[in-house]
Write a structure and sequence with these properties.
heterodimer; A: 341 residues; alpha/beta; Rossmann fold; 2 domains; six-stranded mixed sheet; four-stranded antiparallel sheet; 14 strands; elongated; B: 254 residues; 11 helices
Chain lengths: 341, 254
């Protein structure tokens, strides 16, 4: 394990599993994350990202498997783990009736810091996350979404943790707030050698920040590597062709087999993966024209999470199902119910 | 100990910021005291009635104040669970039970303040405590213990349901507890058999008895023993339930 100042900053998991009734939220995850890295955990809603974070941060017991964080067993040495880690969960945890300074001071003091020092820590962290110029009497309940995220991040940092867990830190944020969080994450990693375990649904986020990415789907890690490795597997650019019917799309898929070896059909759309898309477009049009298939639209895009997904799972992201799950019912609630019962 | 003090302080501060959660409860207690005392005080003229009607109805007001104040513990917990702050606290090295005790003790402090306030109001209205200052103190202690018993119940419901509406609804248990008893008239004037049965089962009856003996009739060791035994028994049961529910919520990893 690569250490910083002789302290263990690694995260490991072996055969990690967590069931919620019939649902295998985390289904046999192995991890070996050396200290000082930014590790991106990428996957759709309901893939098991939050469940895994909750297990690694001692909030939830696993059904099976073992994990260590900062060298401590998450089940047997929960207290030690909590002293070493900072956690900002997807659901921001702030008491809406308290001010930023009250929240920061209480959190700092609960980590055993004396009051005077806690006051300094609170002021320092407010500067760090750019909330120092907010009216000190303003309560967290009156903060905007972006401010709440930043305050929540500050709360995760009160005890100078060696490892920081960020569960979807920028979901739902505007681009400016997102960029600010990215910058802060980079800085924490550069300046303090903090190991950062970051979950996200955004390929771009993982791409910008992470030294290494694992893709999780249905509780299993389906791909792992550096961002450039993963993208190279998919292709650098995507050409999306739109047709009038799914029959046309299927015919086009067959007709283009020789031109584009990497293809995915979805309904009336066909996606083709290339190193350089523009060079191939004239040939695509010629082939389709020759086969008498009418093209309705053509766009060139960067590979998305969907594309990496298609590649590694052989199936499209189930958007409706995932979004429904996120909005209320199955996985998040199942998790919450289990955490607390 | 420091972590419990910090969490009690925090619960108190937050409670005071929401006077709407406290004031209606005080208002109801005062309402009981004024309205029933002025409307039903002729009950005291019935043959065999001992003491004043003020001393008789005051325990109803006190139990209402203590039970209402205890509900705050459940409200604080359920809000923390709902808005995720409870998890934030779980991520500190704080002893897990301190997270439950913080709101419980804070609500006990608030309910004691309410009880004392209502008692002082009754003194202003002319209350004479038959057993003197010691009896006065014991009445406060009984109300406090009864409140803690109810706080245990409120915390249990909050931790089990994790839902503000459900936890709020659970505090309506307060109605049968207060009213299915010899609430407004002494036992000997209640003829309805079903109410007599309900009152005998209802633990609040014994709290009323103890308080009324202290306030109206003088030292009565049997009534006091039964009152304290029932209260402590009830508190033990609800406290155990709350701890059991807390064990689930905090996972008790350390």
């Amino acid at each position: 394990m690569s250490d910083h100042n002789g302290e263990d900053r690694s995260i490991t998991a072996v055969g990690m599993r967590r069931d919620f009734g019939e649902l295998h939220a985390v289904d046999g995850v192995d991890l070996e994350i050396p200290g000082g890295r930014i590790f991106g955990f990428l996957g759709p809603n309901g893939a098991g990202k939050s469940t895994l974070v909750k297990i690694l941060t001692t909030i939830l017991n696993p059904t099976a498997g073992r994990a260590t964080v900062a060298g401590y067993d998450v089940q047997k040495q929960g207290g030690k783990v909590r002293e070493a880690i900072g956690v900002a969960l997807q659901d921001v945890g702030l008491d809406p009736l308290m001010t930023s300074r009250e929240l920061l001071m209480l959190q700092t003091e609960l980590f055993g810091t004396p009051r005077d020092e806690a006051r300094k820590t609170a002021e320092r962290l407010l500067v760090t996350v750019g909330l120092d110029d907010v009216d000190p009497r303003k309560r967290a309940g009156a903060y905007s979404g972006g401010m709440r995220r930043r305050l929540d991040l500050a709360l995760a940092l009160v005890h100078d943790p060696r490892i920081l867990f960020l569960d979807e830190p920028t979901t739902g944020l505007d681009p400016a707030s997102r960029a600010a969080i990215w910058e802060e994450v980079r800085r924490l990693n550069d300046d303090f050698g903090m190991t950062i375990f970051l979950t996200t649904q955004y390929l771009e986020e993982a791409d910008r920040l992470a030294d290494e990415i694992a893709i999780i789907n249905k509780g299993k890690i389906v791909a792992q590597g550096t961002p450039s490795d993963l993208k190279r597997e998919v292709g650098d650019e995507v050409v999306e062709l739109q047709f009038g019917s799914s029959a046309d799309a299927a015919s086009a898929d067959a007709a283009l087999a020789a031109v584009a070896p990497n293809r995915q059909v979805g309904g009336r759309e066909l996606r083709l993966y290339f190193g350089r898309a523009a060079e191939n477009v004239p040939e695509l049009v010629r082939v389709l024209d020759g086969a008498g298939i009418r093209l309705q639209g053509l766009t060139i895009e960067q590979p998305s999470l969907d594309d990496v997904f298609l590649r590694v799972t052989g199936e499209a992201l189930e958007h409706e199902v995932d979004e429904a799950g996120d909005a209320g019912s199955a996985p998040p609630d199942a998790e919450r119910a289990e955490v607390t019962s | 100990m420091n972590d419990i003090l910090l969490l009690i302080g925090r619960s108190l501060r937050v409670a005071i910021r929401q006077p709407v959660a406290i004031l209606p409860n005080i208002a109801i207690s005062v309402f009981f005291l004024f309205v029933y005392n002025s409307g039903l005080s002729s009950v005291a003229e019935l043959p065999g009635f001992q003491g004043t009607y003020l001393g008789f109805i005051l325990p109803v007001s006190l139990v209402s104040a203590s039970v209402g104040g205890a509900g705050l513990a459940g409200q604080t917990l359920v809000k923390d669970l709902e808005n995720g702050y409870f998890t934030k606290l779980l991520l500190t090295p704080t002893r897990r039970l301190a997270l439950i005790w913080g709101p419980m003790v804070a609500s006990a402090i608030i309910l004691t303040a309410q009880v004392v306030l209502v008692m002082l109001l009754a003194l202003l209205m002319g209350l004479r405590v038959a057993t003197g200052p010691a009896g006065f103190a014991l009445v406060v202690v009984l109300a406090f213990l009864w409140g803690m018993a109810f706080a245990g119940y409120a915390a249990f419901m909050a931790l089990k349901t994790k839902n503000a509406a459900a936890a709020q609804a659970a505090t309506f248990a307060f109605f049968p507890l207060i009213f299915l008893s010899y609430t407004f008239v002494p036992q000997e004037y209640v003829t309805a058999g079903w109410l007599r049965v309900a009152a005998t089962i209802n633990p609040t009856t014994y709290v009323f008895d103890s308080m009324r003996s202290l306030l109206n009739t003088g030292w009565d060791s049997t009534s006091l023993l039964v009152g304290f035994a029932v209260t402590l028994g009830f508190a033990t049961i609800t406290g155990a339930l709350a701890l059991w529910a807390a064990r689930g919520v905090t996972k008790m990893t350390s």
